Amino acid sequence: MWGYLGGAQDATGEDFRRAKQLIGTSAGSIVAARLAGGEDPRRGEERVRWDGEAEPDQRPGTLRAALERASRVSLGAFSPLAAPALTAASPGGALARAALLARVPSGRIELHDLRSRVAALGPSFDGRLRLVAVDRGSGRRVVFGDDGAPEASVADAVAASCAVPGLFAPVTIGDREYVDGGVWSPTNLDLARAGRGDRVLCLVPTAAMGTGPSLAMRGLATGWRLATSVEAAAARRRGAHVEIVAPDTGAASAIGPDLMNPARRERVLAEGFRQGTARAG
Fold first, then answer.
1. pLDDT of residue 80
2. Whole-prediction pTM
3. What is the average pLDDT across 262-278?
4. Which residue from 65, 105, 107, 161 could staple onto 167, CB 3.0 to 4.6 Å apart?
5. Are 31 and 48 in contact (CB under 8 A)?
6. Residues 6+ apart with CB under 8 A from 250
């Protein structure tokens, strides 16, 4: 995502830091927070990265293994369109999602390092930035930065949005536990306040999981792709121009089957930059 934005900005001159809205889900919350904090995506270095205790991929395949464990419990725990009960923002749907989350073992890896790195950037909830997590107990979506959302720092909200169930420990804010916003939707594109004449850029790196050999992962990616399509269609009906970007063949190959493999970082950034530069055409 960061490489793509850097390439697109380099090629077109469009400054994504000036976006009217910055909506982040899971790893996208890191990208959104970096933009809100004034980071230039044309810089190749990664000041915010999985490191130390927050670098679970030192044990190969940990993210993939966590997602596959969850999918064996129920794909519905992560794909909002996998079961009708989970599609509506209703008490019944939220309870069903909470019940599924309760069956996924809590992760043990804390995200203290990620919190400190995001805090060092100095981002704030400035009215544009919104970060998505899911209340583990209620199953409801929580949008930090929205009116009426629980009070939280950007660093805590990013950690909550990134807390993949079964891999990372839930993040406690106030007296509630929160997990990855992707449990609700891979992009939460429906949060975009977009209408006629607005342009929406939606980056979906998890689409790369649909190319792997695992049946469970391909099913998960299919559910996520369907969810994104439904949300994008709603924005388009309001007159917005929606561009959905998934990794192309080169970027998907660079990412590989484990989205958290740090050894691939430089190549992934380079391929993302290349793909973003091609956007100018």
1. 44
2. 0.83
3. 92
4. 107
5. no
6. 271, 274, 275
Count other C-beta atoms under 10 Å from residue 196's C-beta.
8
Q: How far apart (Å, rounded) are the C-alpha atoms in residues 88 and 135?
A: 16
Smallest Cα–Cα separation from 16: which of 8, 24, 27?
A: 8
- Distance from C-alpha of 205 to C-alpha of 145, rounded to nearest angstrom: 23
The H or E element containing residue 11 is: helix 2-12
Q: Is 261 left (phi over 0), alpha (psi -120 to 50) or beta?
A: beta
Residue 72 scores a pLDDT above 60: no
CA distance 170 to 176: 9
Angle between helices 265-278 and 2-12 (to 10 degrees): 40
Q: What is the largest CA-CA distance in the chain?
A: 49
**Which residue would you say has higher pLDDT here, 281 or 47?**
281
Which pLDDT does position 83 carry in this prediction? 42
User: If we measure between CA atoms, which residue out of 265, 194, 278 comes closest to residue 236?
Assistant: 194
- What string of DSSP letters covers 27-80? HHHHHHHHHHTT--TT----SS---GGG-GGGSTTHHHHHHHHHHHH-GGGT-T
